[in-house]
Structures are given as structure tokens and as C-alpha cells.
Amino acid sequence: MDGVVIRAAPVGREVCERDTRRGSSSSS
Q1: pLDDT tens-digit readout, 2-16
Q2: Cβ-count burial of 12 within 10 angstroms (0-12 exposed, 13-18 middle, 19+ buried)?
Q3: Are residues 19 and 27 in contact, defined by beta-carbon separation less than 8 angstroms?
Q4: Is 15 exposed, middle or buried (0-12, 13-18, 19+ CB in 10 A)?
């Protein structure tokens, strides 16, 4: 559920990019 909150937040965008680098292509 935290993931959704982070996405809505402005910083969530940067976090999403970091997650993708880690290998969590959940956003993709």
C-alpha cells in the first residue's frame, strides 16, 4: 500500500525510477 502513496507523492517519481534500477519492474 505504501507504494501507492509514494507514487502519488512528487518524490515517488524518483523512488519509482530507483525501484526500476533495483529490478522491481512493478511500475512498468
Answers
A1: 666 656 666 666 666
A2: middle
A3: yes
A4: middle
Following CA atoms 27, 5, 7, 13 in sequence, which dihedral angle do they give, to the nearest 10 degrees?
Answer: -130
Q: What is the largest CA-CA distance in the chain?
A: 21
Band of the pLDDT at 20, cuts 50, 70, 90?
A: low
Q: What is the 3-state secondary structure (H, E, C) of the chain?
A: CHHHHHHHCCCHHHHHHHHHHHCCCCCC
- Spatial distance between the Cα atoms of 5 and 20, rounded to a whole number of angstroms: 17
